[in-house]
Write a structure and sequence with these properties.
336 residues; alpha+beta; five-stranded antiparallel β-sheet; two-stranded antiparallel sheet; 7 strands; 8% strand
Length: 336
């Protein structure tokens, strides 16, 4: 079995006092309990984990960032403007052209359109150019033990990160990612990496950090495994009248109301909806603009699937809009 730290374990033996510092994570009772669980459940070496947690650093900036994600602090207009830029669309077209074969294969095998995959990569990491600057171990340890509102979630992600780096033979201190611990071009959390990442380029290893082909296949697999329906509508714009519609704009993204029911409540359907049966379930998505006004959209099953990637209506909507802009730009640049 692979060890977690091939060279680092010797350092533990040479400097046993490192884990005894009272200011280190390794000295905290809850961390000691976590280490014990990892040893019992997964066969980790206690001394190696002592070193990992002795060297992990609390990041105050991570705690500030997790409390103020852009999906919660920006209006829809501001959030959308940050992603629907000419530069991002241009770079997306270049990425699409470079990786056309892999995107076409992902669409054939998983049913996910190429523009959706490219848009997710564009939103997440600017097509792999901005994968994050934080040591993942620092982010996850900080959030697992110093962020009580979601400590259980991040301890699970930390568990999966340690399993991931051990299985892949990665340097536990060398992997960088987002402030929340997301990894690679598609910004998969460790548990998603283990569950959904695929070796799409067939080289015998899963590499979401530098293989765009693996990233493409893994995003498509994630969406498919979460229920993506090939060829089904994702989201459409809506207009509202009166006041009855308000109770349907409840902040949820799960499609629970039929289009007929929403129409009776004042959700107006344009010609865009002619191909969607009246008994189709949808969510009425409100996108606040921050000035007392809102944009409204209908989110269907595939939109709900998109929000399993990032559980935000703003996120799902900006992926839809960037995908549409990329598709339109590609048609304009390459009509054939």
């Amino acid at each position: 079995m692979k060890t977690l730290l091939a060279a680092g374990f010797a350092l533990v033996l040479a400097t046993p006092a490192i884990a005894q510092r009272t200011d280190s994570y390794a000295a905290r009772p809850e961390v000691r309990a976590f280490i014990g669980e990892m040893v019992r459940q997964h066969g980790f070496i206690e001394g190696e984990l002592n070193l990992v947690f002795a060297r992990a650093q609390r990041q105050e900036a991570v705690l500030k960032a997790i409390d103020r994600p852009p999906e919660q602090t920006k209006s829809w207009k501001e959030y959308r403007a940050g992603f629907l830029t000419e530069r991002r669309i241009r770079a997306g077209l270049q990425f699409w052209n470079t990786n056309r074969a892999a995107l076409d294969r992902a669409t054939r095998e998983y049913g996910v359109p190429g523009e959706v995959i490219v848009a997710i990569l564009g939103v997440e990491t600017f097509y792999g150019q901005r994968k994050g600057r934080w040591r993942v171990i620092d982010s996850l340890v900080t959030l697992a033990f110093d962020f009580p509102p979601r400590a259980a979630y991040f301890r699970t992600e930390l568990e999966h990160y340690l399993l991931l780096v051990r299985a892949a033979g990665l340097d536990v201190f060398g992997v960088q990612g987002s402030y929340a611990g997301a990894i690679g071009m598609p910004q998969f959390m460790p548990r998603s990496h283990i569950a959904y990442a695929v070796d799409f380029d067939g080289d015998g290893a899963v590499n979401l950090i530098s293989s765009p082909v693996d990233a493409i296949g893994s995003i498509a697999n994630f969406l498919k495994q979460h229920g993506w329906r090939a060829g089904a509508v994702v989201q459409e714009r809506a207009a509202v009248r009166g006041n009855d519609f308000a109770r349907y704009a409840d902040g949820g993204v799960e499609p629970r109301y039929t289009l007929a029911e929403l129409a009776n409540a004042g959700v107006e359907q344009s010609g865009e909806f002619e191909r969607v049966p009246a008994n189709t379930l949808a969510a009425l998505v409100e996108l606040p603009n921050g000035n007392g006004s809102s944009e409204y959209r209908l989110g269907f099953h595939n939109f709900y699937v998109l929000t399993r990637y990032n559980r935000s209506a703003l996120y799902g909507s900006v992926v839809v809009d960037l995908a549409a802009a990329l598709s339109a730009a590609r048609l304009g640049a390459d009509p054939g």
